[in-house]
Amino acid sequence: MTPQLHYYQMDPAVTAFSTTRAGGVSTGPHSSLNINAYCGDTAEHVAANREALTRELGIQAGRIVVPHQVHGVESRRIGPHYFTLPSSAQQNLIEGVDAVMTDVSQVAIGVSTADCIPVLLYDATHHAAAAVHAGWRGTLRHIIIRTIAEMRLQFATLPQDIKAVIGPGIAKESFEVGDEVYDTFADERFDMQRIATKMPRMHADDAQPMKWHIDLKLCNRDDLQKAGVLAENIFDCAIDTYEESDTFFSARRLGINSGRIFTAIVLR
Predict the structure, then answer these.
(1) pLDDT digits (tens, 9 = 90+) for 165-216
(2) Which of 67, 182, 209, 253 is deepest in the core (most CB within 10 A)?
(3) Which residues pair with 262 in a beta bridge?
(4) How far apart are CA 181 and CA 184, in angstroms?
């Protein structure tokens, strides 16, 4: 059992990656490489997959940090003391957290997604990193901008020093939304002409033949640049999870209880 990872050439000083569905032991909609304990997979399969991932990354057991995300905007710094705590205390610290950051080496900090947008941030000057879960609710509340501001507080990070990766997530063409979601973005003063397009329904409906589609990746790219990240330092992997659900988990394709992609970064 060897986890099949999609790597990013972010910087020689880090290992950045997203898990694919291949190389684990999980079954059904979790097959086969799922390390998320909150999506209905068995504890035994999750533990075995995490152990295989630590071996692949060459890090110690227990050095993978997988927060329990709630589509909020809270972030948590993972310091050396975190790994001295009992597992229950560790879990409490990452409960309800949608972004994690660290300057501790040989630790995989990451976020879980299955259509939402994962974003990795690396500050080479201070050798610090963050992983951000940007679903539509987090995007609406500008979690990227908030996380970069927190990195400035925690590590003295300057946005122009950040390299960013936008990982596998649902593309605009696949992200069909109701009028209420469109209106919520419009109420928050997003540039709707830039981020939204009305398209024929993905599944035929004579009563409402057209639906709005929103570009979450573009929203988060825009927020990266608004926060001060240079355009040339932003890499979008251009993977649409809905269209590539054979390789990457997609809740819209496989159901909400499918496995989750883990997009993470390890400081070396």
Answers:
(1) 999 999 999 999 999 999 999 999 999 999 999 999 988 776 788 999 999 9
(2) 67
(3) 112
(4) 5
